[in-house]
Amino acid sequence: MDWIKEIEYKKYLNGDLKELEEIIGIELFIRVMKHFAKTSIYFSEKCINNMKVEYIRKNFGLMSDKELARKVGLSERMIYKIANEKHQKLNQIEMFENEK
């Protein structure tokens, strides 16, 4: 697919493909196209959201709530909610262990 670089390829790109090429450049674009040829790709935010939750749980209390919220792009309210869920789960685990 290196032949793509020998033509005015940009005039054939539109929408998401145009944006993708602008972000990653033609070399990586060609590589991605080779790898995912004839495949529909959907980028879900679920994995990023799960990573945010882990990062918040790992760093809650180590940096200010406001700083944490800015860093992961969530509200402080969400930071508190996620942190509170962590503490609830820990309390549930302790309750089960104490019943043994």
Task: Tell me what the structure shows.
The protein has 100 residues and is mainly alpha-helical. It has two domains: 2-35, no CATH class; 46-99, no CATH class. The chain contains four helices and no strands. The protein has helices spanning 15-35, 46-59, 65-72, 76-99. It is elongated, with a radius of gyration of 22 Å. It starts with 14 loop residues before the first helix and ends with a helix. The mean pLDDT is 88.
Q: How many DSSP E strands?
A: 0
Whole-number tally of structural domains = 2
Structural class of the secondary elements?
mainly alpha
Mean pLDDT: 88
The ordered string of helix (H) and strand (E) elements is HHHH
Instruction: Tell me the major beta sheet.
Output: none
Q: What's the topology here?
A:
Blueprint (H helix, E strand, L loop, with lengths): L14 H21 L10 H14 L5 H8 L3 H24 L1
Helix pairs in contact: 3-4
Summarize the structure.
This protein is mainly alpha-helical and 100 residues long. The chain has four helices and no strands.
